[in-house]
Specification:
Elements lengths: L7 H13 L4 H5 L4 H4 L8 E10 L5 E9 L7 E5 L13 H9 L3 E5 L11 H16 L11 E5 L1 H11 L23 E5 L5 H10 L3 H10 L5 H4 L2 H6 L9 E6 L7 H13 L4 E6 L12 H18 L2
Parallel strand pairs: 3-4, 3-5, 5-6, 6-7, 7-8
Antiparallel strand pairs: 1-2, 2-4
Helix pairs in contact: 5-6, 7-8
Length: about 325
């Protein structure tokens, strides 16, 4: 298994592609200095702007929301992948977290993902893979640092983030071309997640047990053919000892979550660590599946934890 995060070779490939796209190569090279300039306690004014991302096979124009700190940067850059059980929500789903990160001096870009009724797995993973490459290409134009792209994923967005991190060069996920930056790959430096679906089959079984018909249907609509629920299962991928890339992970889990069970999450964390990966795991007491959607001390704590995690990754 590969345990190394993207290194200098990937960074130089990105810089070459950025230069080929007509963006200032010297400015892109200065991005490496961002690792020592990020202060999680800093406060920046930000702007939030919607831009076109891509049009999916169903004909829907997917949009990206760019949360851009004021200043010259270059700023650390994070791609946000929304949840919604693969069937719902959009780039606005994690706006409070995205704003909080941006206000600390992080360029955050939240993208719409293809929803399961439009196209099943792996369509949304292809969006995310394309999104990483697209953001590496676009980040310098927003004063972002393309050298260490991170991912923030929530719930089913966390499932997508884990697949993206484990399989950055999978040809199925790399299916959408980006001619403007053909030499850029979809490797990420780290992934921070809230309630990720690290074992979708276990989540499906739990939904059946609790007679949550809508959640059961969400799985059936997304995983077509049905065996895809095993092929794309991060827990099972590790148990099968597939060749994967292991980047540092942060997993935040609600102790009262009956959607993604803490015991299932803890098993994934243990398996990831046993495979040689670095995984920070934090259980949030008195918190359910989507606790970060509500103001409160646990939400504040989650935001600070993500900022601190990003800061640590930028120093490595």
């Amino acid at each position: 298994m590969r345990t190394d995060p993207p290194g200098r070779r990937d960074f130089l490939k990105t810089m070459v592609a950025v230069g080929a796209a007509g963006l200032p190569l010297a400015a892109a090279r200065r991005a490496s200095a961002a690792a020592i300039s990020y202060d999680p306690a800093a406060r920046f004014e930000i702007t939030a702007t919607d831009v076109e991302f891509r049009r999916n096979a169903a004909g829907r124009l997917l949009m990206a929301r760019v949360y851009r700190p004021a200043g010259a940067g270059p700023f650390p850059t994070v791609l946000d992948l929304h949840g919604g059980a693969w069937n719902a929500k959009d780039r606005h789903a994690e706006e409070p977290m995205d704003r909080a990160l941006a206000e600390s001096g992080v360029l955050v870009v939240a993208i719409d993902l293809t929803l399961a009724p439009e196209a099943p797995y792996p369509a949304c993973v292809q969006d995310a893979n394309y999104g990483v490459r697209w953001l590496k290409w676009k980040a310098p134009s927003w004063n972002g640092d393309p050298s260490k792209i991170g991912v923030y994923g929530s719930s089913s967005g966390g499932h997508v983030a884990e697949l993206l991190a484990l399989r950055p060069r999978d040809p199925r996920y790399n299916a959408i071309p980006l001619p403007e930056a053909a030499g850029v790959d979809a490797s990420v430096a780290y992934a921070a997640m809230r309630s990720p679906i690290s074992n979708p089959f276990a989540r499906f079984q739990n939904a059946e047990k609790l007679k949550r018909d809508a959640m059961v249907k969400n799985h059936v609509v997304f995983f077509k053919p049905w065996d895809a629920i095993h092929e794309s299962n991060p827990q099972e991928i590790l148990e099968r000892h597939e060749p994967v890339t292991l980047v540092p992970l942060l997993i935040m889990q609600g102790a009262l979550d009956d959607n993604v069970l803490p015991a299932v999450q803890e098993k994934f964390v243990a398996t990831y660590r046993a495979a040689g990966g670095d995984c920070q795991y934090q259980l949030f007491e008195d918190s359910e599946h989507e606790w970060v959607a509500k103001p409160g001390p646990q939400t504040d704590r989650a935001r600070q934890m993500v900022k601190a995690f990003i800061a640590r990754q930028l120093k490595t």
